[in-house]
Fold:
Amino acid sequence: MHTPKAKKLNSGAWRCQVMVDGQRLSVTRSTEKAAVAAAMAMRTGLIQVTKTPVQDLQLTKAIDRWLEMQTNVLSPATIRGYRNVQKNHFDSIMHRKCSQITDTMIAQAISNESRRFKAKTVTNYWRFLKQVLTWATGKQYSASLPQVVPAEREFLDYEQIDIFLKAVKGDRIEIAALLALSSLRRSEIAALRWEDVDLELGVIHVRGAMVPDENNNFIRKDTTKNASSRRDVPIIDPLKLALESVNNRTGLVVHKHPANIQLNINRVCREAGLPEVGCHGLRHSFASLCEHLQVPPKIAMEIGGWSDRSTMERIYTHVAKQDKAYYQNAFTAHFKSDASSPNT
Structure:
């Protein structure tokens, strides 16, 4: 158990703070040792603490208590995101008691956030705060949210993929890029271990993810984004050749910071005259290629690790430009008049 540290006050006394069931408590004693001992006694229950009813806590304190309850449920990356909301957003209500926060206050806070951030960001942040507020007060909250306009993401169509494969061959980012093109997320690439690569069977077992915790340190977790993300992915020939060329096949397959994976993929794209699609754009390209090759959606979902078909089709599947042009031409040609037909 972590031992809290005491701080000496101007008065000469010592103060020590400790978290108990999500509530930050403070104890003051005449000596440093006594302050630490009292704080530890509070934490272990030797000193009974009168807790503030959760509805009377400031929203930021209620978040502390709620997250304390969710420590073993939420991923480190999710907790990190929630801490970001707590520290940097919704300032006008964050330090008000939960019981005093009204729909009018919420509407103003959402309006303030919408001036600074995208609609999707504001919507996601509010959904988190609504969950905490409802837990704290039992109330249901009504709020008008900004309209979320789906972002247009860059991807490579099937002809551009061929160009990319030639450009990335032999590059230091080749393995990571080919893993992304095979559908792996950046967090899954960073966490992939050689023990999860079966070159004989030609399969990659996706079994973990590398994510930042609330202190922005990357840690490996043995779970993926969701249950469907835990999957087996076939190894494409260019990736197999790149993997077989590695001599030391122990530990992590890719020894690069997740941010560097993104930067280097964009570098290769830029040098090849392709859109800078990044790691996620290559994942989009995987789905687009599956669409072009008419891979059954259920199979594409299983390889890509999507939990439902609508998510894959709504967000990730793009129709290749050449395919789209073909069908557009066929459609317009149907309505063209035949110049050789006699007038009637």
About this structure: Strands lie at 6-8, 14-20, 23-29, 197-198, 203-206, 209-212, 218-221, 231-234. The longest strand covers residues 14-20. The chain has a mean pLDDT of 85.
